[in-house]
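Notes on consecutive records. When two proteins share a document, each keeps its own sequence and its own token line. Never mix them. Below: protein one.
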Amino acid sequence: MELSWIDRSLAGRPRRISRIVSRETAKRGRKLIETLGSAGLPAVEGDARAVEKWLAEFEAANFGRIPSEQLARWLGWQDDGTFVSSPEDGIKVDTPFEEQRGPARAHARKGTLDGWRDTVAQLEGFPVPRVAVAAALAAPLLKPLGLNSFTLDISSRSTKGKTTALQVALSVWADPSEHASAMSNWRTTLYAIEKRLNLVRGIVTVFDETMAVTDDTLIDEVLYQLPMNHGKARSGGAFGNMLPWETILLSSGERPALSFTTSQGAAARILGTTIAPFGDSGGPAAAAAREGVLANHGHAGPEFIQYILSGLAQPNGRDKLAEHHRRLVDEFRGGGDMTNRRAPMVAVLVLAETLACGRGLLPYEPLSHDVWRGLFTAHNPTDNRPDMALDVVREYVAGHAHELYSTTRAAMGERPPFSGWLGVLSTKDGATEVALLPERVRKILAEAGYSLDAVVGSWIDAEYLKTLKSQRPPHLVPRRFDGARAKCLAFTPEGMPTATRTMPHEGRVLGGTHEVRTTRARRKPSSEASRVPPRGRYAVARKWHPSGVGVRARLRAGVHTHRALSLSAYLRTTVSRERHKSRSGPLFARYAAGTQPVRSAYHLSPSLLESR
């Protein structure tokens, strides 16, 4: 219902004010005055009952004489099956939110369709801008095909034409200029994004510059919420509760949208490419395209939807469209689960470009299917989020090997690290196993933005973890270390493949694969002393033997001539010899002769000692 009144607040300049409200609001006086009070409705809350009664009597007395017209509350598909592309279509558009009025007005026409077509013809050699145009044309196909909304993300280095590619796509329906309200920015809030999406049902939406976002979790939430076709549920029946939409979201930025989330499911909800839209030398083409679409826009979308409506009106038109889409889906299915889930999204883009080229809207031949496969259905390592999470754990273990408990450390009497043991390093039948405490793994993944509960199932399926049916849960197997027993995540060689190479004995070594050069000591040990195994605690990694024979036993048997040397003694005899001039020589001799106990896990290799 549209209500109008005369505002006489300006002396000598009365003006007419009109506002559209729902019939529910018009029949509730208090709510009506609350809604229209800011617009200047000449009524106060005390008049609420009289206002609602007067409106009801006025409508009843003038039944049949009050004119009626179609009203759209959003752009795109309407409830009666019609499509409103723009407020210029002859149907009045009254959006429920004030923030939506600017973007709605930006969906307007300028220039000519031929001018726009001539501009787009320059994009024939640039696949990424053409994909963006196809996405803009594919948005109205979501409803007849029964597809959910999804995201197309274009990311690359700066000055490669990302914003221009989005402007070309937006020009299918609206004014793509940066000062117009049709193009939005990621520097906003979730509720504002929901309002912007709520404006359309079958028209593309554009958000530029992911790097402008103030909270990384915002993009993560949008990527998950978008395919649901409605916003968040808000308590108390608040206005703006579960706002509906139907769109293809175009996003751009120097940073891929998927980098803002570590969830596996997000990768299946987005099509992303990191190819520069206009390449390294496409600056002139990008500038020409931008100038062309600023002068000619808003024509291709309405023309395309008329073609779609005419096709749907034909006998079995909707079924034929769906069958065409199904054939494309089958063609773009790949060998992995992720490519299979993306196939319907890729297929609808291909279908839109094919139909538009056949209609003559796009002045070039459709992209080959191989190009589409290379862009979106080829294997991408970032699709496997569980493996990416496991890489985080592997890197942490490689850098914190000294936090792994082992029998050798127990024999050396090492104390637990300050943060506690990370897990257990054990060897059985020549195979090395790494078992980690689950809470430590949970913390490591959380710091990297991953969730252990979200990836552990995939680790089990990939046989990265050992399982025992007798345990609950099976993937937490008991391991004993440091006099205690705890359930751990025991990794298989496939799950922790570097364990057998980088941690055969212990991680804290000097002289392993790195060259350590020092100055010559004052006193060189005699050849007799070199045969005497030192007392105390031993640590030898370079000459570790895979048979498992104890290092201490081999030293006592004279098999090895390692002379263990603590790090503190090493520093006293080499780096700080001037400071300890009076005792560095004798101290080194006592270590070499075995009369001074060694209290460290560090060692020097024989070649290093011989050089001294």
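Protein two starts on the next line and is unrelated to protein one.
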Amino acid sequence: MPKEKVLHQLYHSKIAPFVPSALTELIGSRGVDVVKRVGIDVVKDVIADVLCGRNLRDSTEMLTRRRIGMLNAATLIFFVKGLSASRRFIDDLPAVAAEGLTQRSSKQERWMLQWILGLTGKGVQNVLRDSDRALDGYRAKFIATNKDILKQCENEYGPVAGNIVLADGSNVALTWQMLLSLFCTIGSQTLAIRGSEKSTYGKLFERLILGSVLEILDFKLVPYPPKETRLVFWLSSRLGARESDATALIQPGQAVRFDIGFIGRGNPEISKDKVSRFEREVEIGGKKFYSATCIIVDRIGERSKIVEQAKAINGTIVQMSMSFWPQQLARELRSKVGFDHKLCDMPTARVGSYLRRAVSELRIERFVEAISNLIAEEKDEPNQENDEK
């Protein structure tokens, strides 16, 4: 079946004929799709930057900006195609969107319908309280407000003039009504995508970075349960009461469990939760392992007591905001479990170039494959909890 037809099967409302396939693909892309979209080399650059202390969000901002820009452009095409088919396209959109949101729909269609009404997933929760009954009242107020804005723009700025012509011959006149509806849609779109990107990049790069730093420290990625017990690790597992992002075996009877999160000093309660639920002893493959704990976070506040709490469970906290934090991680592992690596005593001036060279030699594709299997088991809906922050 042609790709275009497959993508259009995700839509059942009246907007279906006008949605570009690129718009559908961009809405539906998941963390592992980022690697395919931007390429392995770009992903390696981001990983190397973070290992050298750079902020992940700083490194991924241009990736987010690229996705938003392409979504905005595809949304413009959607409006032009719709208006080319019907002069009443903009007038009918709110009713079409509201009707579509009361029906069973794909994630791609639901998000697009929400954006048309100036909503995001969070907005549906907070403004509509997830109630279909509230949707009719909201739609009426939305239409009335847009009419008021339209009059105000015409009075204050006068009419707009011009045409948008596409390569396929579609030709529509620019009007305030068309522009305001477009701006409303891409505004909500930007909020939603920024919220979901934060979660998407977090899930993807947390694991990529953790896997990368462990391989740089000479651990080998293996499936669970492991057949070897020396210098091996696997990503994401639940051992005992607490799930960890990675578990590494130093030697028979000696394990280290890792938790990683891009948690800043503004979220101390999350970090505190991370250090409170790891056991000192776990069972792996039917054998008991003494377990140390390593929590890797973005940064913690100066007055935080989390470091002391981690020590109480024979754990340690490493901050990614510190330059060349993998060296600190190696030193902590030497202190806690007797693990040694050349990074431990390497002069600071050499660490940056060493890390970048090591990342360039990694086979990131293996991590992507392992991570894609993990993400496939997780909830399909990207996190929009922070789309309005």
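For the record: Residues 3-203 form one domain.
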